[in-house]
Protein backbone atom coordinates (compact mmCIF):
# COMPACT_ATOMS: atom_id res chain seq x y z
CA UNK A 1 0.00 0.00 0.00
CA UNK A 2 2.85 2.42 0.86
CA UNK A 3 4.59 1.66 -2.45
CA UNK A 4 1.38 2.35 -4.35
CA UNK A 5 0.95 5.68 -2.57
CA UNK A 6 4.53 6.71 -3.36
CA UNK A 7 4.06 5.79 -6.99
CA UNK A 8 0.85 7.83 -7.24
CA UNK A 9 2.60 10.78 -5.59
CA UNK A 10 5.44 10.65 -8.12
CA UNK A 11 2.98 10.51 -11.02
CA UNK A 12 1.08 13.47 -9.57
CA UNK A 13 4.28 15.45 -9.05
CA UNK A 14 5.32 14.82 -12.67
CA UNK A 15 1.86 15.91 -13.79
CA UNK A 16 2.11 19.21 -11.91
CA UNK A 17 5.53 20.02 -13.33
CA UNK A 18 4.34 19.45 -16.91
CA UNK A 19 1.18 21.58 -16.92
CA UNK A 20 2.66 24.62 -18.61
CA UNK A 21 3.80 22.52 -21.57
CA UNK A 22 0.36 21.13 -22.32
CA UNK A 23 -2.15 22.54 -24.78
CA UNK A 24 -5.26 21.05 -26.34
CA UNK A 25 -9.01 20.95 -26.84
CA UNK A 26 -9.06 19.61 -23.28
CA UNK A 27 -5.60 20.55 -21.99
CA UNK A 28 -4.36 18.79 -18.87
CA UNK A 29 -4.49 22.05 -16.93
CA UNK A 30 -8.17 22.38 -17.79
CA UNK A 31 -9.19 18.85 -16.80
CA UNK A 32 -8.48 19.22 -13.07
CA UNK A 33 -11.40 19.29 -10.67
CA UNK A 34 -10.54 22.87 -9.75
CA UNK A 35 -10.66 23.99 -13.39
CA UNK A 36 -14.01 22.25 -13.89
CA UNK A 37 -15.44 23.58 -10.62
CA UNK A 38 -14.41 27.18 -11.42
CA UNK A 39 -15.22 26.70 -15.12
CA UNK A 40 -11.90 28.30 -16.01
CA UNK A 41 -9.55 27.27 -18.83
CA UNK A 42 -6.85 29.95 -18.78
CA UNK A 43 -3.56 28.05 -18.42
CA UNK A 44 -0.38 29.98 -17.70
CA UNK A 45 2.00 30.62 -20.57
CA UNK A 46 5.79 30.50 -20.21
CA UNK A 47 5.84 33.86 -18.43
CA UNK A 48 3.68 32.36 -15.66
CA UNK A 49 0.64 34.53 -16.34
CA UNK A 50 -2.72 33.18 -17.54
CA UNK A 51 -2.91 33.31 -21.34
CA UNK A 52 0.48 35.08 -21.44
CA UNK A 53 -1.18 38.25 -20.18
CA UNK A 54 2.08 39.73 -18.84
CA UNK A 55 3.60 39.35 -22.32
CA UNK A 56 0.50 40.87 -23.93
CA UNK A 57 -0.34 37.67 -25.77
CA UNK A 58 -3.90 37.43 -24.44
CA UNK A 59 -6.24 37.71 -21.48
CA UNK A 60 -8.51 35.42 -19.49
CA UNK A 61 -12.05 36.51 -20.27
CA UNK A 62 -15.67 35.35 -20.34
CA UNK A 63 -17.15 35.41 -23.85
CA UNK A 64 -20.21 37.63 -24.21
CA UNK A 65 -22.61 34.77 -24.72
CA UNK A 66 -25.80 33.63 -23.04
CA UNK A 67 -25.54 30.10 -21.64
CA UNK A 68 -28.35 28.06 -23.11
CA UNK A 69 -28.10 24.98 -20.85
CA UNK A 70 -28.81 22.60 -23.74
CA UNK A 71 -30.02 19.02 -23.37
CA UNK A 72 -26.73 17.74 -24.85
CA UNK A 73 -23.71 19.34 -23.18
CA UNK A 74 -21.80 19.49 -26.47
CA UNK A 75 -24.14 22.23 -27.74
CA UNK A 76 -23.24 25.88 -27.01
CA UNK A 77 -19.53 25.08 -26.79
CA UNK A 78 -17.81 25.44 -24.33
CA UNK A 79 -20.36 26.76 -21.80
CA UNK A 80 -21.00 23.38 -20.17
CA UNK A 81 -17.29 23.16 -19.28
CA UNK A 82 -15.83 26.67 -19.08
CA UNK A 83 -16.98 30.24 -18.58
CA UNK A 84 -13.51 31.81 -18.63
CA UNK A 85 -11.13 31.06 -21.51
CA UNK A 86 -8.17 32.73 -23.19
CA UNK A 87 -8.79 35.51 -25.69
CA UNK A 88 -5.66 35.97 -27.81
CA UNK A 89 -4.25 39.18 -29.31
CA UNK A 90 -2.54 39.87 -32.63
CA UNK A 91 -1.23 36.71 -34.33
CA UNK A 92 -1.28 34.55 -31.19
CA UNK A 93 -3.41 31.44 -31.05
CA UNK A 94 -4.08 28.34 -28.97
CA UNK A 95 -5.95 27.93 -25.73
CA UNK A 96 -3.11 29.59 -23.79
CA UNK A 97 -2.15 31.96 -26.64
CA UNK A 98 1.12 30.03 -26.79
CA UNK A 99 1.22 29.29 -30.53
CA UNK A 100 0.77 31.31 -33.72
CA UNK A 101 -2.27 31.71 -35.89
CA UNK A 102 -2.11 29.65 -39.10
CA UNK A 103 -0.02 31.63 -41.56
CA UNK A 104 2.45 32.93 -38.96
CA UNK A 105 5.54 31.65 -37.19
CA UNK A 106 8.42 32.82 -35.00
CA UNK A 107 8.71 33.48 -31.25
CA UNK A 108 6.49 36.56 -31.53
CA UNK A 109 4.33 35.24 -34.39
CA UNK A 110 5.45 38.04 -36.72
CA UNK A 111 7.00 35.96 -39.53
CA UNK A 112 4.70 34.93 -42.40
CA UNK A 113 4.48 31.17 -42.99
CA UNK A 114 3.09 29.55 -46.14
CA UNK A 115 2.84 26.01 -47.52
CA UNK A 116 1.52 24.82 -50.86
CA UNK A 117 -0.65 21.73 -50.80
CA UNK A 118 0.01 19.49 -53.81
CA UNK A 119 -2.16 16.77 -55.29
CA UNK A 120 -0.87 13.63 -53.60
CA UNK A 121 0.23 11.89 -56.81
CA UNK A 122 2.32 14.98 -57.66
CA UNK A 123 4.50 14.38 -54.61
CA UNK A 124 7.88 12.87 -55.40
CA UNK A 125 8.96 9.69 -53.62
CA UNK A 126 10.74 11.56 -50.84
CA UNK A 127 7.84 13.94 -50.20
CA UNK A 128 5.33 11.10 -50.17
CA UNK A 129 7.40 9.02 -47.76
CA UNK A 130 7.88 12.01 -45.46
CA UNK A 131 4.12 12.61 -45.41
CA UNK A 132 3.12 9.00 -44.80
CA UNK A 133 5.81 8.37 -42.19
CA UNK A 134 4.72 11.53 -40.33
CA UNK A 135 1.18 10.15 -40.16
CA UNK A 136 2.50 6.85 -38.84
CA UNK A 137 4.59 8.70 -36.25
CA UNK A 138 1.51 10.63 -35.10
CA UNK A 139 -0.48 7.39 -34.88
CA UNK A 140 2.01 5.71 -32.55
CA UNK A 141 3.15 8.55 -30.27
CA UNK A 142 1.11 9.59 -27.25
CA UNK A 143 0.45 13.31 -27.02
CA UNK A 144 1.94 15.16 -24.06
CA UNK A 145 -0.36 18.08 -24.86
CA UNK A 146 -3.85 16.63 -25.10
CA UNK A 147 -6.44 14.54 -23.35
CA UNK A 148 -9.66 13.22 -24.85
CA UNK A 149 -13.06 13.19 -23.19
CA UNK A 150 -15.17 10.04 -23.23
CA UNK A 151 -18.79 9.73 -22.22
CA UNK A 152 -21.55 7.15 -22.07
CA UNK A 153 -24.22 9.85 -21.93
CA UNK A 154 -23.70 13.42 -23.17
CA UNK A 155 -26.94 14.52 -21.50
CA UNK A 156 -25.45 13.96 -18.03
CA UNK A 157 -22.63 16.39 -17.33
CA UNK A 158 -20.86 14.31 -14.68
CA UNK A 159 -20.78 11.23 -16.92
CA UNK A 160 -17.39 11.69 -18.59
CA UNK A 161 -13.72 10.90 -18.12
CA UNK A 162 -10.45 12.18 -19.60
CA UNK A 163 -7.88 9.88 -21.22
CA UNK A 164 -4.51 10.14 -22.92
CA UNK A 165 -4.28 9.37 -26.63
CA UNK A 166 -1.85 9.50 -29.54
CA UNK A 167 -1.68 12.63 -31.67
CA UNK A 168 -3.52 10.96 -34.55
CA UNK A 169 -6.17 9.45 -32.27
CA UNK A 170 -6.82 12.91 -30.81
CA UNK A 171 -7.59 14.00 -34.36
CA UNK A 172 -9.99 11.05 -34.69
CA UNK A 173 -11.61 12.02 -31.39
CA UNK A 174 -12.20 15.63 -32.45
CA UNK A 175 -14.22 14.43 -35.41
CA UNK A 176 -16.11 11.92 -33.27
CA UNK A 177 -16.99 14.60 -30.70
CA UNK A 178 -18.35 16.98 -33.34
CA UNK A 179 -19.80 14.44 -35.81
CA UNK A 180 -21.79 12.28 -33.42
CA UNK A 181 -25.42 13.38 -33.55
CA UNK A 182 -26.73 15.31 -30.59
CA UNK A 183 -29.13 13.42 -28.38
CA UNK A 184 -32.66 13.21 -29.83
CA UNK A 185 -31.72 15.06 -33.06
CA UNK A 186 -30.33 14.48 -36.54
CA UNK A 187 -27.86 17.35 -36.08
CA UNK A 188 -24.20 17.70 -35.17
CA UNK A 189 -21.59 20.46 -35.14
CA UNK A 190 -19.77 19.53 -38.34
CA UNK A 191 -22.23 18.12 -40.91
CA UNK A 192 -25.63 18.72 -42.51
CA UNK A 193 -25.36 22.48 -42.18
CA UNK A 194 -23.51 25.64 -43.25
CA UNK A 195 -20.53 25.04 -40.94
CA UNK A 196 -19.63 21.77 -42.72
CA UNK A 197 -16.74 22.92 -44.98
CA UNK A 198 -15.39 25.47 -42.51
CA UNK A 199 -15.33 23.03 -39.59
CA UNK A 200 -13.32 20.59 -41.68
CA UNK A 201 -10.97 23.38 -42.82
CA UNK A 202 -10.12 24.11 -39.18
CA UNK A 203 -9.86 20.38 -38.52
CA UNK A 204 -7.13 19.98 -41.17
CA UNK A 205 -5.26 23.04 -39.89
CA UNK A 206 -5.39 21.52 -36.41
CA UNK A 207 -3.72 18.23 -37.37
CA UNK A 208 -1.18 19.97 -39.61
CA UNK A 209 -0.06 22.08 -36.65
CA UNK A 210 0.07 19.14 -34.25
CA UNK A 211 2.14 16.98 -36.60
CA UNK A 212 4.51 19.89 -37.20
CA UNK A 213 5.01 20.26 -33.46
CA UNK A 214 5.43 16.51 -32.99
CA UNK A 215 7.89 15.93 -35.85
CA UNK A 216 9.66 19.29 -36.04
CA UNK A 217 8.75 19.47 -39.75
CA UNK A 218 7.69 23.10 -39.94
CA UNK A 219 6.43 22.79 -43.53
CA UNK A 220 4.47 19.57 -43.14
CA UNK A 221 1.20 19.81 -45.07
CA UNK A 222 -1.76 17.64 -46.07
CA UNK A 223 -1.90 17.02 -49.83
CA UNK A 224 -5.22 16.71 -51.62
CA UNK A 225 -6.63 13.77 -53.57
CA UNK A 226 -8.42 14.79 -56.77
CA UNK A 227 -10.92 11.95 -56.98
CA UNK A 228 -12.42 13.25 -60.24
CA UNK A 229 -9.45 11.89 -62.20
CA UNK A 230 -10.31 8.22 -61.78
CA UNK A 231 -13.37 6.02 -61.48
CA UNK A 232 -11.60 3.98 -58.81
CA UNK A 233 -9.26 4.62 -55.88
CA UNK A 234 -5.89 5.23 -57.53
CA UNK A 235 -4.17 5.66 -54.16
CA UNK A 236 -5.47 2.44 -52.60
CA UNK A 237 -2.15 0.70 -53.17
CA UNK A 238 0.99 0.07 -51.16
CA UNK A 239 2.75 3.14 -52.52
CA UNK A 240 0.13 5.26 -50.79
CA UNK A 241 -2.53 4.12 -48.30
CA UNK A 242 -2.41 0.37 -48.78
CA UNK A 243 -3.86 -2.18 -51.16
CA UNK A 244 -6.86 -4.14 -49.89
CA UNK A 245 -7.88 -7.76 -50.23
CA UNK A 246 -11.33 -9.29 -50.79
CA UNK A 247 -11.89 -9.28 -47.02
CA UNK A 248 -11.43 -5.50 -46.92
CA UNK A 249 -8.24 -5.68 -44.87
CA UNK A 250 -5.21 -3.64 -45.84
CA UNK A 251 -2.29 -5.56 -47.33
CA UNK A 252 0.30 -6.55 -44.72
CA UNK A 253 3.05 -4.93 -46.77
CA UNK A 254 1.52 -1.53 -45.98
CA UNK A 255 2.25 0.29 -42.72
CA UNK A 256 -1.47 1.05 -42.46
CA UNK A 257 -2.30 -2.65 -42.01
CA UNK A 258 -1.01 -2.25 -38.44
CA UNK A 259 -3.28 0.70 -37.66
CA UNK A 260 -6.17 0.06 -35.31
CA UNK A 261 -9.26 2.22 -35.08
CA UNK A 262 -9.80 4.54 -32.13
CA UNK A 263 -13.24 5.40 -30.75
CA UNK A 264 -15.47 2.49 -31.73
CA UNK A 265 -18.67 3.19 -33.60
CA UNK A 266 -21.16 3.17 -30.76
CA UNK A 267 -24.77 3.32 -31.84
CA UNK A 268 -26.01 5.21 -28.78
CA UNK A 269 -26.34 8.90 -29.62
CA UNK A 270 -24.94 10.02 -26.28
CA UNK A 271 -21.79 7.91 -26.44
CA UNK A 272 -18.48 9.61 -27.24
CA UNK A 273 -15.47 7.34 -27.67
CA UNK A 274 -16.72 5.34 -24.71
CA UNK A 275 -14.14 2.54 -24.97
CA UNK A 276 -10.78 4.17 -25.77
CA UNK A 277 -8.85 1.24 -24.28
CA UNK A 278 -10.64 -1.51 -26.19
CA UNK A 279 -8.33 -4.57 -25.86
CA UNK A 280 -9.09 -5.69 -29.42
CA UNK A 281 -9.60 -2.59 -31.59
CA UNK A 282 -10.74 -3.16 -35.16
CA UNK A 283 -8.35 -2.67 -38.10
CA UNK A 284 -9.01 -0.17 -40.89
CA UNK A 285 -11.12 -1.68 -43.66
CA UNK A 286 -12.03 -0.71 -47.23
CA UNK A 287 -13.99 -2.38 -50.04
CA UNK A 288 -13.83 0.31 -52.72
CA UNK A 289 -16.71 0.28 -55.20
CA UNK A 290 -18.31 -2.89 -53.80
CA UNK A 291 -21.49 -1.05 -52.79
CA UNK A 292 -23.69 -0.89 -55.90
CA UNK A 293 -25.26 2.39 -54.75
CA UNK A 294 -21.80 4.01 -54.57
CA UNK A 295 -19.67 2.13 -57.09
CA UNK A 296 -17.88 5.10 -58.64
CA UNK A 297 -16.31 8.42 -57.64
CA UNK A 298 -17.61 11.95 -58.35
CA UNK A 299 -16.75 13.35 -61.78
CA UNK A 300 -15.94 16.77 -63.18
CA UNK A 301 -19.55 17.26 -64.23
CA UNK A 302 -20.58 17.04 -60.57
CA UNK A 303 -17.86 19.51 -59.59
CA UNK A 304 -18.80 21.96 -62.32
CA UNK A 305 -22.49 21.84 -61.40
CA UNK A 306 -21.62 22.53 -57.78
CA UNK A 307 -19.25 25.42 -58.50
CA UNK A 308 -21.93 27.03 -60.67
CA UNK A 309 -24.44 27.09 -57.81
CA UNK A 310 -24.89 30.67 -56.59
CA UNK A 311 -26.51 30.05 -53.19
CA UNK A 312 -24.10 29.05 -50.44
CA UNK A 313 -26.86 27.36 -48.44
CA UNK A 314 -30.65 27.27 -48.51
CA UNK A 315 -33.51 26.46 -46.11
CA UNK A 316 -33.92 24.27 -44.16
CA UNK A 317 -30.08 24.37 -43.90
CA UNK A 318 -29.62 20.63 -43.44
CA UNK A 319 -29.51 17.45 -45.52
CA UNK A 320 -32.76 18.43 -47.26
CA UNK A 321 -31.41 21.72 -48.66
CA UNK A 322 -31.57 22.03 -52.46
CA UNK A 323 -29.90 24.37 -54.97
CA UNK A 324 -27.25 24.87 -52.30
CA UNK A 325 -23.49 24.84 -52.85
CA UNK A 326 -22.96 23.45 -49.35
CA UNK A 327 -25.49 20.66 -49.78
CA UNK A 328 -24.08 19.75 -53.21
CA UNK A 329 -20.51 19.77 -51.89
CA UNK A 330 -21.49 17.66 -48.90
CA UNK A 331 -23.37 15.29 -51.21
CA UNK A 332 -27.03 15.48 -50.22
CA UNK A 333 -28.23 17.41 -53.28
CA UNK A 334 -27.60 14.72 -55.90
CA UNK A 335 -27.26 15.65 -59.61
CA UNK A 336 -29.90 14.17 -61.86
CA UNK A 337 -27.81 11.91 -64.07
CA UNK A 338 -27.74 8.33 -65.31
CA UNK A 339 -25.75 6.87 -62.44
CA UNK A 340 -28.64 6.53 -59.94
CA UNK A 341 -26.37 7.04 -56.94
CA UNK A 342 -27.60 7.41 -53.37
CA UNK A 343 -25.10 10.19 -52.61
CA UNK A 344 -22.72 12.52 -54.43
CA UNK A 345 -19.51 14.51 -53.99
CA UNK A 346 -18.11 14.34 -50.41
CA UNK A 347 -20.61 11.73 -49.23
CA UNK A 348 -20.11 9.58 -52.31
CA UNK A 349 -16.36 9.30 -51.68
CA UNK A 350 -17.03 8.11 -48.13
CA UNK A 351 -19.64 5.61 -49.36
CA UNK A 352 -17.48 4.43 -52.27
CA UNK A 353 -14.64 3.39 -49.94
CA UNK A 354 -17.17 1.16 -48.16
CA UNK A 355 -15.47 0.48 -44.84
CA UNK A 356 -14.02 2.58 -42.04
CA UNK A 357 -14.52 5.73 -44.13
CA UNK A 358 -18.23 4.97 -44.53
CA UNK A 359 -18.98 5.31 -40.79
CA UNK A 360 -19.15 9.07 -40.44
CA UNK A 361 -18.28 9.73 -36.78
CA UNK A 362 -15.21 7.45 -36.85
CA UNK A 363 -14.25 7.97 -40.52
CA UNK A 364 -11.07 9.91 -39.67
CA UNK A 365 -9.51 6.62 -38.52
CA UNK A 366 -8.67 6.01 -42.19
CA UNK A 367 -5.85 8.37 -43.25
CA UNK A 368 -7.55 8.67 -46.65
CA UNK A 369 -9.96 10.96 -44.81
CA UNK A 370 -7.54 13.88 -44.67
CA UNK A 371 -6.51 13.89 -48.35
CA UNK A 372 -10.18 13.56 -49.32
CA UNK A 373 -11.10 16.55 -47.17
CA UNK A 374 -8.15 18.54 -48.43
CA UNK A 375 -9.73 18.36 -51.91
CA UNK A 376 -13.12 19.30 -50.44
CA UNK A 377 -11.37 22.32 -48.91
CA UNK A 378 -9.83 23.19 -52.29
CA UNK A 379 -13.29 23.18 -53.87
CA UNK A 380 -14.62 25.40 -51.07
CA UNK A 381 -11.89 27.94 -51.75
CA UNK A 382 -12.60 27.95 -55.49
CA UNK A 383 -16.32 28.57 -54.86
CA UNK A 384 -15.60 31.38 -52.39
CA UNK A 385 -13.29 33.09 -54.87
CA UNK A 386 -16.01 32.91 -57.53
CA UNK A 387 -18.75 34.17 -55.21
CA UNK A 388 -17.21 37.07 -53.33
CA UNK A 389 -20.59 38.66 -52.56
CA UNK A 390 -21.95 35.58 -50.76
CA UNK A 391 -22.22 35.48 -46.97
CA UNK A 392 -22.71 33.03 -44.14
CA UNK A 393 -26.47 32.44 -43.77
CA UNK A 394 -28.44 33.84 -40.83
CA UNK A 395 -31.60 31.98 -39.85
CA UNK A 396 -33.31 30.47 -36.83
CA UNK A 397 -33.73 27.31 -38.93
CA UNK A 398 -29.99 26.62 -38.63
CA UNK A 399 -29.15 24.36 -35.71
CA UNK A 400 -27.69 26.49 -32.91
CA UNK A 401 -24.29 24.71 -33.09
CA UNK A 402 -23.84 25.79 -36.72
CA UNK A 403 -25.13 29.35 -36.60
CA UNK A 404 -22.68 32.01 -37.64
CA UNK A 405 -22.20 33.35 -34.11
CA UNK A 406 -21.84 29.92 -32.46
CA UNK A 407 -18.37 28.89 -31.35
CA UNK A 408 -16.93 26.07 -33.42
CA UNK A 409 -16.78 22.93 -31.26
CA UNK A 410 -14.56 21.69 -29.74
CA UNK A 411 -11.75 24.07 -30.72
CA UNK A 412 -9.74 26.61 -28.74
CA UNK A 413 -9.42 29.54 -28.79
CA UNK A 414 -13.09 30.29 -29.37
CA UNK A 415 -13.93 31.24 -32.94
CA UNK A 416 -17.43 31.71 -34.31
CA UNK A 417 -18.34 29.61 -37.35
CA UNK A 418 -18.70 32.72 -39.53
CA UNK A 419 -15.28 34.03 -38.44
CA UNK A 420 -13.69 31.84 -41.11
CA UNK A 421 -15.93 33.05 -43.94
CA UNK A 422 -13.65 35.84 -45.16
CA UNK A 423 -10.38 34.08 -44.23
CA UNK A 424 -8.90 32.87 -47.51
CA UNK A 425 -6.46 29.98 -47.61
CA UNK A 426 -3.68 32.49 -48.29
CA UNK A 427 -4.54 34.37 -45.10
CA UNK A 428 -4.43 31.04 -43.24
CA UNK A 429 -0.96 30.22 -44.53
CA UNK A 430 -1.55 27.83 -47.42
CA UNK A 431 -2.64 27.52 -51.03
CA UNK A 432 -3.31 24.75 -53.53
CA UNK A 433 -1.04 23.90 -56.44
CA UNK A 434 -2.84 22.77 -59.58
CA UNK A 435 -2.18 19.20 -60.70
CA UNK A 436 0.85 18.93 -62.98
CA UNK A 437 -1.11 16.93 -65.58
CA UNK A 438 -4.21 18.40 -67.29
CA UNK A 439 -7.40 16.65 -66.32
CA UNK A 440 -7.99 13.52 -68.45
CA UNK A 441 -11.64 14.48 -68.92
CA UNK A 442 -10.83 17.83 -70.49
CA UNK A 443 -10.89 18.81 -74.17
CA UNK A 444 -7.90 21.08 -74.73
CA UNK A 445 -9.29 23.19 -77.59
CA UNK A 446 -9.69 26.08 -75.19
CA UNK A 447 -9.49 29.85 -75.19
CA UNK A 448 -7.01 31.56 -72.93
CA UNK A 449 -8.07 33.97 -70.20
CA UNK A 450 -5.84 36.80 -69.04
CA UNK A 451 -5.92 35.92 -65.35
CA UNK A 452 -4.26 33.64 -62.86
CA UNK A 453 -1.53 33.86 -60.26
CA UNK A 454 2.17 34.21 -60.78
CA UNK A 455 3.65 31.21 -62.56
CA UNK A 456 0.26 30.00 -63.77
CA UNK A 457 -2.14 30.53 -66.63
CA UNK A 458 -5.89 30.08 -66.36
CA UNK A 459 -7.79 28.56 -69.28
CA UNK A 460 -11.48 28.18 -70.03
CA UNK A 461 -12.06 24.51 -70.82
CA UNK A 462 -15.01 22.53 -72.12
CA UNK A 463 -15.52 19.51 -69.86
CA UNK A 464 -16.66 16.13 -71.14
CA UNK A 465 -18.35 14.11 -68.44
CA UNK A 466 -17.26 10.54 -67.87
CA UNK A 467 -20.72 9.13 -68.57
CA UNK A 468 -20.19 9.82 -72.26
CA UNK A 469 -22.54 12.77 -72.59
CA UNK A 470 -21.71 15.61 -74.95
CA UNK A 471 -19.32 18.40 -74.01
CA UNK A 472 -21.46 20.97 -72.24
CA UNK A 473 -19.84 22.51 -69.16
CA UNK A 474 -17.35 25.30 -68.66
CA UNK A 475 -14.74 25.26 -65.93
CA UNK A 476 -11.22 26.60 -65.42
CA UNK A 477 -7.91 25.04 -64.46
CA UNK A 478 -4.53 26.50 -63.58
CA UNK A 479 -1.61 25.24 -65.61
CA UNK A 480 1.78 25.80 -63.97
CA UNK A 481 4.37 27.61 -66.02
UniProtKB/TrEMBL annotation:
Record protein name field: Tyrosinase-like
Secretion signal span: 1-24
PANTHER family for this protein: TYROSINASE FAMILY MEMBER (PTHR11474), TYROSINASE-LIKE (PTHR11474:SF132)
Family: Belongs to the tyrosinase family.
All residue ranges annotated as the Tyrosinase copper-binding domain in the record: 191-208, 366-377
Molecular functions per Gene Ontology: metal ion binding; tyrosinase activity
GO CC field: melanosome membrane
Keywords: Melanin biosynthesis, Metal-binding, Signal
Gene3D superfamilies referenced in this protein's UniProt entry, alphabetically: Di-copper center containing domain from catechol oxidase
Subcellular location, record wording: Melanosome membrane
InterPro entries, A to Z: Di-copper_centre_dom_sf, Tyrosinase/Hemocyanin, Tyrosinase_Cu-bd
Example of a GO biological process term: melanin biosynthetic process
Listed PROSITE patterns: TYROSINASE_1, TYROSINASE_2
Keyword Signal: yes
UniProt topology in membrane: Single-pass type I membrane protein
Domain of life: Eukaryota
One protein family per Pfam: Tyrosinase
